[in-house]
């Protein structure tokens, strides 16, 4: 993982061979959550995933939680490349323990 993490810190748009970039993961997660939020509006939603995608999304949530249409905003920002690498590269600060539950 060390090589992939080093690339993540330098360029959030660069994808490892056969993988997704940090920005790609943020965009994909936002799309899924946007449709889930519309379908289950007002309900508690449990998201289960690998640590990296959850950490990436938490970094974006932290930055954009003041937005009124958060998930749409995340989609727009990640697609346009407007989420700075300084935000996306911070996902390592949100490390999760195996099986950890976290409210966001």
TrEMBL record:
Protein source organism: Zizania palustris (Northern wild rice)
Name of the featured protein: Uncharacterized protein
InterPro entries for this protein: His_Pase_superF_clade-1
Pfam name, any one: His_Phos_1
């Amino acid at each position: 993982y060390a090589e992939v993490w080093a690339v993540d810190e330098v360029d959030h748009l660069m994808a490892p061979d056969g993988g997704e970039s940090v920005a790609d993961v943020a965009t994909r997660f936002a799309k899924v959550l946007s449709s889930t939020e519309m379908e289950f509006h007002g309900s508690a939603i449990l998201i289960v995933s690998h640590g990296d995608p959850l950490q990436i999304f938490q970094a974006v949530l932290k930055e954009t939680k003041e937005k009124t249409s958060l998930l749409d905003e995340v989609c727009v920002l990640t697609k346009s490349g407007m989420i700075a690498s300084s935000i996306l590269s911070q996902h390592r600060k949100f490390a999760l323990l195996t099986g950890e539950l976290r409210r966001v």
